[in-house]
């Protein structure tokens, strides 16, 4: 029930509905009337699809920084110079981890409507795909977690983090939405980072970095090669159509 607050007043939302809200549902932030004290029990009338959210009414800031291509290329160059390996993690359903600051409500999913409370809606605790503020909520979540783990964020690159231990070495992490690229001088730090991230969030360990932002990355014992063969072939196919 991580994503939903208690449903209708005095009742618990059906357990089966927790997974169903990930499907496309109507979403709309509802302002609380001055006389209303039950923030989880709202009239469902007036709920609208996520694409109809209005700025300054349904959401405020939505901007979320992502890693630039030149940042990744610099990271690859540094790893090649130092003889480090680059690794990649993929966060599953990343936006679902973002904690919402605004009040956002969703209609009860079809097939999981609570009897006698058909006019009630659920209050979201965390973001869903389709919400305008979902990317920013995820960035705030991952940023706060990395900072709490002792990582220092770059003053010029908002998605670049570094952690240094005198007795262990250095670890550098770059985030691009739900993809995480990391490298460093210490195998211990690399393994600890991977273990902690996979414990905190549901992730897929992709191993050595091999493809990112349109670049193929080939890592050998002595060198790192990058190319955009796939991108070039796509352009050629497009031009010959």
UniProtKB/TrEMBL annotation:
Residue segments, region Disordered: 1-54
Biased composition range(s): Low complexity: 1-26, 34-47
Reverse transcriptase Ty1/copia-type domain location: 49-236
Pfam families reported for this sequence: RVT_2
Entry-linked PANTHER family: AMIDOHYDROLASE 2 FAMILY PROTEIN, NODULIN 6
UniProt protein name: Reverse transcriptase Ty1/copia-type domain-containing protein
Organism: Prunus dulcis (Almond)
């Amino acid at each position: 029930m991580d994503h939903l607050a208690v449903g209708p007043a005095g009742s618990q939302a059906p357990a089966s509905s927790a997974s169903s809200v990930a499907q496309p549902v109507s979403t709309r932030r509802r302002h609380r009337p001055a006389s209303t004290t039950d923030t989880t029990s709202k009239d469902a009338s007036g709920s609208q699809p996520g694409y109809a959210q209005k700025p300054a009414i349904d959401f405020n800031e939505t901007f979320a920084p992502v890693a630039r291509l030149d940042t990744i290329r610099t990271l690859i160059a540094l790893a090649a110079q130092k003889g480090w390996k680059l690794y990649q993690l993929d966060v599953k359903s990343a936006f679902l981890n973002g904690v919402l600051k605004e009040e956002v409500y969703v209609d009860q999913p079809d097939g999981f409507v609570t009897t006698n409370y058909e006019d009630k809606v659920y209050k979201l605790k965390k973001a869903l795909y389709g919400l305008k503020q979902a990317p920013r909520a995820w960035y705030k979540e991952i940023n706060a977690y990395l900072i709490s783990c002792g990582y220092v964020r770059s003053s010029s690159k908002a998605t670049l983090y570094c952690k240094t231990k005198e007795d262990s070495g250095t670890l550098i992490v770059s985030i691009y939405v739900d993809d995480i690229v990391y490298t460093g001088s210490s195998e211990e730090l690399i393994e600890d980072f991977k273990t902690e991230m996979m414990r905190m969030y549901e992730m897929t360990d992709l191993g050595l970095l091999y493809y990112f932002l349109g670049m193929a990355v080939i890592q050998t014992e002595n060198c790192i090669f990058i190319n955009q063969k796939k991108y070039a072939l796509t352009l050629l196919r497009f031009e010959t159509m």
